[in-house]
């Protein structure tokens, strides 16, 4: 299973309400943990017994150390991970209403937002070995569909989790199994 996506450090803030524009609310607690749809899917697939490779880009910082530790513990192939000294590892600010469970999220992909088609080309040996290729829409959209095209050409079953929701051309559906 090859998964293409992002890792972000989730900075979760819990309060009695989600602030409205211009409002400040006092929170009750906060936690920092792993996030990113692709990273979460890679960890879940590996923990379920899948042989998983993950393709992403991280900064060279403490958050990337968190990611590397998680992938090592889950036995994920990290050959498809590049490290960028110019950009930080992604982060997400999540405000959670403890009463309702509702949340508001802002994701900053960081280094993963700079992934380009050449990185996908560099990872083709990993994609070629995979029976399943899974991705989402947190990576740059044009690169995501380029990766789906390459995975399809390599004979992988392609899966797209269309989140976060955004529109794209209907002709791209032919790249998705």
How would you write the strand order of the largest sheet? 5-4-1-8-9
- Major β-sheet annotation: 5 strands, parallel
Principal-axes geometry comes out as globular
Report the span from N to C terminus: 14 Å
Strand content: 25-35%
Plain-language structure description:
With 177 residues, the protein is of the alpha/beta class. Helices cover 27% and strands 31% of the residues. It contains five helices and nine strands. The chain has helices at 37-47, 62-73, 117-122, 124-128, 141-153; strands spanning 2-4, 8-15, 29-35, 53-59, 81-84, 89-97, 103-110, 132-135, 157-160. Strand 4, helix 2 (62-73) and strand 5 (81-84) form a beta-alpha-beta unit.
Write the layout of secondary structure elements.
Layout lengths: L1 E3 L3 E8 L13 E7 L1 H11 L5 E7 L2 H12 L7 E4 L4 E9 L5 E8 L6 H6 L1 H5 L3 E4 L5 H13 L3 E4 L17
What would you say about this model in short?
With 177 residues, the chain is of the alpha/beta class. It is built from 5 helices and 9 strands; from the N terminus they run E-E-E-H-E-H-E-E-E-H-H-E-H-E. The strands form 2 sheets. A 5-stranded parallel beta sheet has the order 5-4-1-8-9, sandwiched between helices. A 4-stranded mixed beta sheet has the order 3-2-6-7.
């Amino acid at each position: 299973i090859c998964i293409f996506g992002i890792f972000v450090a989730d900075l979760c803030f819990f309060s009695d309400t989600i602030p409205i524009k211009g409002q400040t609310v006092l929170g009750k607690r906060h936690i920092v943990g792993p996030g990113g749809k692709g990273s979460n899917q890679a960890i879940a697939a590996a923990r379920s017994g899948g042989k998983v490779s993950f393709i992403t880009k991280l900064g060279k910082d403490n958050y990337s150390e968190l990611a590397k530790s998680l992938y090592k513990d889950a036995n994920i192939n990290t050959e498809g991970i590049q490290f960028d000294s110019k950009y930080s590892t992604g982060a997400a600010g999540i405000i959670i209403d403890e009463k309702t469970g509702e949340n508001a999220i802002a994701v900053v992909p960081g280094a993963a937002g700079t992934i380009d088609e050449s990185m996908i080309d560099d990872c083709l040996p990993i994609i070629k070995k995979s029976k399943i290729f899974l991705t989402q829409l947190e990576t740059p959209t044009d690169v995501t569909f380029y990766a789906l095209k390459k995975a399809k050409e390599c004979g992988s079953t392609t899966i797209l989790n269309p989140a976060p929701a955004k529109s794209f051309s209907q002709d791209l559906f032919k790249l998705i199994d």
